[in-house]
Amino acid sequence: MSLSQLNPDNSKPPGAKTFHKVDQDVLRTLQPGALYFSLLGVCLILIAFGAWAWSQQVRHGLGVTGLKHPVMWGAYITTFVFWVGIAHSGTLISAILFLFRARWRAAISRASEAMTVFAVMTAGLFPIIHLGRPWLFYWLIPYPNERTLWVNFRSPLVWDVFAVGTYFTVSAVFFYIGLIPDLAVLRDNATGWKRRIFAITSLGWSGTGREWKHFSSAYLFLAALATPLVVSVHSIVSWDFAVAIIPGWHSTIFAPYFVAGAIFSGLAMVLSILIPARSILKLEEYITMWHLENISKLIIVSSLIVSYSYLTEFFFAWYSQNPFEQTVFLSRAVGDFAPLFWLMVMCNCLTPLLLFFKSVRCNTTILFIVSILINIGMWTERFVIIAGSLAREYSRASWDTYNPSWVEWSILLASFAWFAFWFLLFIRHLPAIPLAEVKESIHRSFHDHLSNRQEKNL
Amino acid sequence: MKGILGIFKDREDLATALKEMPIRNYTYLETFSPYPDDELCNISEPTRSPIRWMTLLGGIMGGICGLSLTIWTTLQWPLLITGGKPLISFPPFLIIAFELTILLGALATAAGFLYWGIARRFLKSLPYDVRFSQGHFGLWIECPQSEIEKVVNWIEKSGVTEWKKY
Amino acid sequence: MIKRRDFLKTVGVSGSAALMDACTLENSEKLVPYLVAPEDIVPGIPVYYTTNCRECPAGCGMLAKTREGRVIKVEGNPRHPLGEGKLCVRGQAAVQSLYNPDRFTGPLLRNEQGQLEPIEWDQAEEILTAHLTQLLTNDKSQEIAWIGHLLTGSMESLIRQWLQSLGSEHLLFYETFQYEPLRQASKIAFGHFGLPQYHLEKAEFLISFGANFLETWRSNVEFTSAFHKMRSSRDPNTPDNFVYLGSRLSLTGSNADWWIPLQPGTEIQLALSIAHSILEQGLATEETSNQAWIASLLAPYSPESTKELTGVETSTVRELAQRLCKTPPSLALGGEINTSGEQALSLELAVLLLNAMAGNVGQTITFGTDFALNQLASYQEILNLVQEMHRGKIDTLFLHHGDPVFTLPTRSGFTEALDNVPFVVSFSSLPDETTAHANLILPDHHFLESWGDYSPRSDLISIQQPAMQPVFNTRSTADVIINVSQKIDRLAEQFTYSDYSEKLYSYWESAVRKKSNKDVPWEEFWPGVLTNGGSFRETAPVEVTLKDISNNLQVGEETLVGPEGGASLILYSSPHFFDGRNVNNPWLHEIPDPTTQLVWDSWVEMHPDTALQLSLKEGDVVELSSPYGTLKSPVHLYDGLHPNVVAMPLGRDKSADLRYASGKSENPMQLISPEAATDSGSVLWRSVRVGITKTPDHHPLVSLQLENGEHPEEALVSIQPVESIAAAQRIQPSELKETDISQKAHAPPDYYPPHDHPDHQWSMAIDLDACTGCNACAAACYAENNVPVVGKELCSHGREMSWIRIERHKAPLVQATDIVPSDGISLPVLCQHCHNAPCEPVCPVFATYHNPEGLNAQVYARCVGTRYCSNNCPYKVRRFNWHTFTVPEPLQLQLNPDVTTRTAGIMEKCTFCVQRIQEGKNRARRENREIHDGDVTPACAQTCPTEAIVFGDINVPDSRIALLAEHPRGYHILEPLNTRPAVTYLKKLVPEKAFAED
Lengths: 458, 166, 998
Prior knowledge:
The structure holds three protein chains of three kinds. By secondary structure, chain A is an all-alpha fold. Helix content of chain A is about 75%, strand content about 0%. Chain B starts with a strand and ends with a strand. Chain B is built from six helices and four strands. Chain B is of the alpha+beta class. In chain B, helix 3 (about 50-75) runs antiparallel to helix 4. At the A-B interface, helix 2, helix 7, helix 9 and helix 17 of A face strand 2, helix 2, helix 3, helix 4 and helix 5 of B.
């Protein structure tokens, strides 16, 4: 973060005044307004509608969806993968960039972490929503029962239970521990019952050297654990498909391919959230163009990896001379799913190339549009992979196509509302900017600044 | 409890003051800061945090749990052959083991933090000033009655914003 | 097997013994299985009754499997010569006509307002009695007429006796397909009226002039198994020994090696030119070769001269001639409704001439056995009665089964005549077009509920036992007649039977036992009849000689009335619905039509080129107009048609109030001529050309197979069903491991060690060379495993539940040449019970796993519905319950109590009929012995008329399955996936070189 904005007088080290300003700027964002409540209302309505749609499905059976023989998985699993993917960039920014000492992440790490937690909360619903008999979902969890019948640990779906479960727990813990010092700030600025709540939630944090020491150590190790976790989680999600024998699914590149895709879509989601947020919450000095640019650069990288994976898939199909593989990819390019396929190519491969231009990276409007397109593109990608491959399976006589029904569409919409609902609650009641980290980075950047000056003087 | 709490506006003043001060004479020191600051932390707690051992322990525990859970439960019903795979098919079981390694590792780390970082502090009650969380820095010096005068003289010379005696 | 038969014998006898008492309890509401429960009727143990199938006039032997007093499944009677234990798709579905929810629940009377209102049986019989007494007193009883389906034996004698004593001469047995031309032709050609008996199994070469003997023609089950015998014994070097001629490639046609797509009306010229070629090449038998009239008759029909009209190359004709004569005996089968126009009789004559010249008479064609079908009134006689009715000469008309209003040409005026008859009594048990005109409806029992007998051929007469109490408040027509007669003084003394069964016994005593087995006392004879399902004997064929047929042979351009340039209309009998009598059986709608793969609805078939000219797409509704009527129907594009032809199936839909017949598509009988053929007196099935006009409407037709399997690369690895015999012989024993499923033997390399199945290893083999694609297995599976019917709408979403599907794979047909390979392949696909099943490891909850006997088990209660297993199944044989499917009362009575019904959200699939496996194992354990070959037979294998499906324990040495698993023609679908299926497919044999090439 450029020091000049917060510490105009570079000769003096940043002191209480500067840090106090940070507090004030962030605390200012915690006043709920009309916009907030109206958005919250909209979310609740959409969630309610989605819930009703699902109740129809539970009552009448999955026949109310567009699913059919042989396309047994469709919009639900697509959406599941989509949201797990969204979660990933959160961990990337908060944990991986932390390990890489990428200091610029500080300002946006809190929002990304929150995104991770809520995205996993959303994703976790879909495996249950899509079940034929959802009331028995707990049979996928290994628990002692009188038949001594446990779960099948060979099934990727059980791996999912463990992966997603672990991922949610760890990110939640990571999120909360990082929040404790800032809760203390809130406590010290609050009065009455709010103060009491924050006093409890901040566990009586008082910022002593010992606390900070253990805090940093714990934060570091959690970040170190979250990093392999994030890679494993989306690899496992991709193995839901790669482990199956379906042409178009059964591919060794799926794990890296999906992880890259996850980071890609997640970063785009970060942009789509931060760009409006920073202007509404007037946090431009904290979440600067510099941050947005850095994210854009990461997007370019991940986009190129994803595009490369697309090419590799087609290359495999051609090189393997496997007729089934070829049939699937042919139908993707020119068959029923061709429009979606080309939409996906447009969104995921071509649009991100715009970000090579600084003018684009620095224009929040275009950036926002690009990020939305990427989100659409990534949902489409998963849809094409999942439904498209199933529709063109080995048994040619069973080929068919698939269109989601209104139930699936409304539940998809509701999932966005559900995510937005939690994010709104977060952004209005907790500091969207990690105060301690920002203060720390101001301090550090001042020292860098000093040392630079000394070198110059010498 | 006898001691002096110094409140500093600027971190640098505290830092320089600490340099001039022969701290080892005094039984207990604690610093307060709005963000983690290695220099100040080392004054109150020079040794490394033991949390890393918790992480290691939790991880190992998790790995063992993962393997034993999968293998033991499969042996509960050895008739359940699926897809021509043997009862104990390691590749999938390792995935479970890995996830549990991470999970228990993380939980152990959190537990460690709650113990050393939070719980331990309540053993000793310290004075506190709300400004610490916002931008001010603090120093708590515990010392015998006899020494108080000396400490007061020293702290007044340092660029302290204000100081309290307890 | 013998043990099983003894088992059947005991239960058959004692069970029916009990029923003899039970049957007198006609109108009991509840389903009380037995009045006096025989000690060996144990709940949970099925009881089998021998009876015979009356779904069509063929009358195959049938076993009714009952549980706790209700029929749950019907199967062929293994001791009966007709069917030999097999049933067709219609026979399998007979239980659905028994439990049909739309059956009349009791007698009905049409009141002044013209509404049918329910009445009591006593009342109904009184009404009838009163009416008849009045007729007798007014001396108008000769104005009584009876039109009913084909009857023989005791029932026939009862009806004849009754009508005689009433003084009526109008007794017409009427079926939709009556074969008048063939019956006449054999009279003319051999002086022996009636249908000849064919012996396909003896024929070395078969040529069919449109006769669909695998579908509905005469006795399809009998012919199908005979056809299989003929094919399986054919000379490997000439595997192509069946040629089908006709304008439409039927299911039978697609089982031929070669198809000659003919311009309708030219069949006879082709037949005669073949005869000419036989003569010309000096291949004819000597008694025919030196007959002057033959030479002169055939003179004008040299292959060269007929080529113009038929479009068949001379080389092809010569080859046909050679094949017919070179390897005697051969067989040429005469036409069916799709070939019978005004020259139908001449065609039959020409075909008989062919057979005579090829020396088949006495070999593959014999006379001397009298067929029940010979008694049928001709269409001309029906028309005469219609005239009578019009003239008001008929006061009372009894309609006993059959649906003449629907099945007679609409313009025949029968419907109008019917309304001209004051008192119409229908014994039909299901609402149909005819009952809509009846004044009094006295619903008869279903044949599974009532006593009866039927003698399709003079050499056998089958017994028809009541297998259960009546489902509804119906009453057997015979009993109604007896009751009524006993109330009429003039008849009373002749009808002294307490009920029909008594009449039945006396008939069997006098007419059967005394004639056939005089020396066997009744006490032994009757139980034998009940266990065997009838009384069977040999009849000696009579010598016949060919007469001069030239005067009866009218050959010319077939005249079709109708708009110039219109397409000639062909009607064909639906393989599933015969003439529409079982149109309300949902299974038959849900199982795809063999040739089109369409479900539900009816349609008109059109060649793609024709459709292109008229810019018509699949499902577009067209209006067909002939001089006799017009109708609207959706178009189905079918390349197995001659381009100048449109074809319509009969009986796929009715307008009567039936829940499984939509009533949307109209009756094609509206279009054809009401005239009868002048010579044979048959219906002019092929008499019109129809104008085709496109309408704006579109009526989507639902096909369950969107893609035809022919696909160059795929053919290599996935569907490799065809193979030339030479290739098959080339396979060396060393290469057998590729087509080997027994794991103990050569196992292909694998990451994990194979798991073996020490006790049992259930496996199946399906011979694609034998499978005709008749769908009987599918119907049997629906019946055995409580597979739900989902209806058209859900079928269109690809949510059908069938556990076994017959995929149709064929190369696109070339119309250019005169003779094309028809290589249609029917590939029955069911759960392959793979040893490395991809579906198993992906299930998170162990709902599907591999059991120790090699079965891929599916635990319904454990399934949570992730549907991953179905995704991962390369054969796509798993079915998901998208909703909780239920059946309307009383169809639920048919559900098999040994198989659980499934609810929404559960995956299901073929279990190899695990309940039958269990039963087989239990039987072996009771008799404490090892499992033998044939102890366990799944429903599909049980009913397969060609025994294309063989099932068994591969661990039983030298069992059929153990041998077939090693068969040189064996292969597995998608073998490269290394799923190691337990189902071995045997490749179909196809000719390597073109037909007329040497």
